[in-house]
Hints:
The structure holds two protein chains of two kinds. By secondary structure, chain A is an all-alpha fold. Chain A is about 75% helix and about 0% strand. Chain A has helices at about 1-40, 45-50, 65-80, 85-90, 95-130, 135-160, 165-180, 195-205, 210-220, 220-225. The model of chain A has no long low-confidence stretch (mean pLDDT about 90). Chain B folds into three domains: about 1-30 and about 325-405, no CATH class; about 35-105, no CATH class; about 110-285, no CATH class. Chain B is flat. Chain B is an alpha+beta fold. Chain B has helices at about 1-30, 70-75, 80-85, 100-105, 115-120, 165-175, 325-335, 360-375, 385-405; strands at about 35-40, 45-55, 55-60, 65, 95, 95-100, 110-115, 145, 150-155, 160, 185, 200, 210-215, 215-225, 230-235, 245-250, 255-260, 265-270, 280-285, 290-295, 300-305, 310-315, 335-340, 350-355.
Amino acid sequence: MYKAIFYKEWLKIRWALMIFLLLGVFALVNIFLNVRYGVRFMDAHDYWYRIIIQGSNYAASLKYIPLFAGLGLAIAQYFPEVLNQRIKLTFHLPIRENKVLLMQQGFGLAALIVLFLIYLAVFFIGSAIFFPSEVINMILVTIMPWFLGGLAAYSLVGLIMLEPLWLYRVLYAVIAYGFVSRFYIQAVPMAYSNMLWFFSLTAVLTVILVLFSGYRFRKGEMHHG
Amino acid sequence: MVKLSRYILVAIGILSAAVTIPSLYWTIFREASSVPNVVYSRVLDDFMMIKRVDGVLVRADSEGNQYTRDEFEQLLPVLFFRQRLTSGDMPDTLHGVYMDHAMLSKHSANFTIRPVDMSQPRPVLWPLLESESGRVDLELPEDFFRLHDRIEFIDAATNKVDKEKSALFQQALEEGGFSFPARLIAGLPTDRKNVDDGYFIKDNRGDIYHLKMVRGAPYVARIDIPEDMDVIHIECVDLATREFFAYLFTDDNRVFLLMQDDYRLQELPVEGYDRSLHRLRVRTDLLHKTIGVIGEDQVKVFVVCNDYDLVDTFHKSWEPPHQRRDHILFSWIFPFQVSFLNPDSRYITLDVYQPKGIAFMLLHIVLGGVALVLSKWRQLPLKHQLPDLLIILFTGIFGFIATQVFPNKFYE
């Protein structure tokens, strides 16, 4: 039974996952081709100076890719469920409804985390060719909130899509926007360094939010909300 | 678990509301406050100031006599020397000091440091320029150095450590008694300055060292500072007069100049200065130095002559921000404000601002009452609404919005 549930989730997200894998790797390859160009054809030390002293982030073009990956995966996973209220069928399986929802959410999240780890691996391999550990660490701290924001966005889109009432969907979306945008504040490199714990914690806490909408869905808010 | 998920949502709602709504409030209701720009006139031997009153610039002396722009500038010839020279009414001497354009220009410098300048990420590596290349222009080096357990120069083109150069500088630092790792590195990492003075580095023991590269060789000097002095920030300057290298800020909010000729420390009068609250402005000219400690509700100005004897002081304070109308209205509506962006830091912080007093409690009680009526109307049992009411009582308008957007219906 569990295997079947995971397989169904895999069928739903595999294309989205492939697209974002290709998109992210393509963006990173592009980033390091640009770095290579900068180091080889401009003066290498000028290029370093721009990053280290003037605070330019060579991985800046990666910024919204984790966010879109989170949004894309959540839509791929929950849109088919919401369409014609198919999730009701899932809720008729002989498993506790919360458990099914958490399994779905957990599977999607695990897939997203694997995707992000692949991004980060490519980032590390590329960075290590051109930069010392201090610079890699500086940029890593800078891009980390973008990945955490992708995780939070994934969870919140699940919450919004499973919510049965449109009014509440809009209200959730407003609050979700206000919340997720805090992960993408325009700031100097390493600006988040003292707050990574806070953003990690809040991103983790959002994982179980889907239960709230699932609850409202089961209670049939749609009919007598 | 489902209930917990709701409280997480309510918390996110409160956080989002506490960030956005007060920020919207300030955009609409913020009242402009004007801090006077205080300067010292050697013609009057008194302080003068420019202040914006109801949108109009007012120029006055410390007695409150007002001046036109020309009159004002004529009383401050050293400060406005370019305009006075052009207008043709620049005195040749003042207090026996001969003044010409070259001298005035060379000696005039401004330095400002705000709380935000001390709270920002520092560079992770540093370029060490050649300070006596014999060339007219300074040039950035091909490598950057790190200074943790040892000093290492990393070549940018190859991303490899230059072992030979690193060993040379490592040895020089060890011979100088430097205790690794560095706890603070300060300098001017740019080629757009008059001369290069390398870096001033606080070592692991708290001693300050001067490191530069002279014709490819390391120059290391230990700077004598008092045993109990804890330097927490160094701001280097590039003065045409070559009088001092840097401003040193200590843990107990004292400010020193690090003089160029003998590495002597010269303390500046900055009584009452708090680096986390105040802007420090030092205006240097041919005749004296004017040191301003500028806060939200006060300005203190100290004037010293060229040998740093105190000439005069000025102090003016006005109503603190929390007594202004915009702050009072705020205190009736919002229990607190959360900001991730703080004007006093370039770091993202979780900054919680609380207004003075508890005027907001009135609104909290009203909102609690409204929530109670709403739950009665929805026929929800009262005892299950208690946590929500407590949330509203403590977080007011934010909690009210969050609990209404994510309603509590687990007990229907």
